[in-house]
Amino acid sequence: MGSAELSPLLLVQAAEHYNAGRPQQASALCADILVAHPHHLPALHLASVIALAEGRMEEGRKLLHELMDAPCPAYPSGTYPGWLHPGTDYLASFAPFNSLPTQCRVTIDGQQKWFAQ
Known about the structure:
Blueprint: H1 3-19, H2 23-36, H3 41-53, H4 57-69, E1 83-84, E2 91-92, E3 104-108, E4 111-116
Antiparallel strand pairs: 1-2, 3-4
Helix pairs in contact: 1-2, 1-3, 2-3, 3-4
């Protein structure tokens, strides 16, 4: 099986590890995917969530920017259907321009750590 076929399987395994409380294993699988496919949007997304949840803010920020800047031919714009507010790390998403949620929360150990609209 080639790396193109393995990516979905590895991503499912990464999500399962993360959901089971094994973020290090999930991060390692995301890293494997990103070596083979540097612009793999779901792997970039999961890797950024894991990094931010673990307090690796600069790494999470870098991955979030990579996600937002990655080419995405499935969308008419050719890029991910979301953006960061210029000069910030704040997600900007406004209906009806895309289908991303306009409110985002990151909760760590039951505490809300971040909210954006």
